[in-house]
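Thread: SDR family NAD(P)-dependent oxidoreductase, structure

OP (GT): Posting the sequence first so everyone is looking at the same thing. Length is 254 residues per the record. Can we get the structure tokens written out before standup tomorrow? I want them in the notebook alongside the other entries.
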Amino acid sequence: MADLTDTIAVVTGAASGLGAATARALAQRGAKVALLDFNLDGAAALATEIGGKAYEVDVSSARSGEAAFDRLVADLGRPKILVHCAGIAPGKKILGKSGVMPLEDFERGIAVNLVGTFNMLRLAARHMAENEPDVESQRGVIVVTASVAAFEGQIGQASYSASKGGVVGLVMPAARELAAHGIRVMGIAPGIFETPMLMNMSEEVQKGLFASVPFPHRLGRPEEYSDLVLSIIDNPMLNGTVIRLDGALRMQPR
């Protein structure tokens, strides 16, 4: 088990869901956590609870991302861990009853989920590369969040699936390139988890999703995502791949 005492860890989307669970788990292991979120109030409330610091960020914006990293590095120091959980789940048919999907609706999913992932990864890597290497010659660990929708996108998920498919495609080339700097890059593709994103769906939709998970026959818990993050951090041989965390779920067309 890696010693995370006083290790600087950045978690995006930290105000709720998978990000909040991960921020708590890292803090419990002794890390100093920078909580980044568009929802600054939510991130600040959790930061107070776990002894971290909160920063407002629009992950899709170069200027916003750079400013957030400059502030957190000045306050805490260079990060050794990034867990990127920020994202949105836009849903709209390419050609629905109301007509063709506006291009900007597709672009928004790509901007937040894919461009935002790359933005946070590049900024974290920039600072991690200056860290002193540990006994494994490692300077940092980056974990990004994809989705099972990257592999079995449903009807109405064109933007979401394309963006998460891009995240999957980013992991290997990033891991290969950043290996020269001692930085590992991993991805997690969650299935259906108990997050605000899902809880905002109708009860009927939630029941249908619940029934589709083979085993365990329930929704995933955010703590199960954070447990996997810690396992990735602890195991230096995990690099350059995306792990499905889905209870053997394979999404149906609708």
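GT: Both are above now. Quick notes for whoever picks this up: The domain at 8-191+225-241 is CATH 3.40.50.720 (Rossmann fold). The first strand starts at residue 8 and ends at 12.
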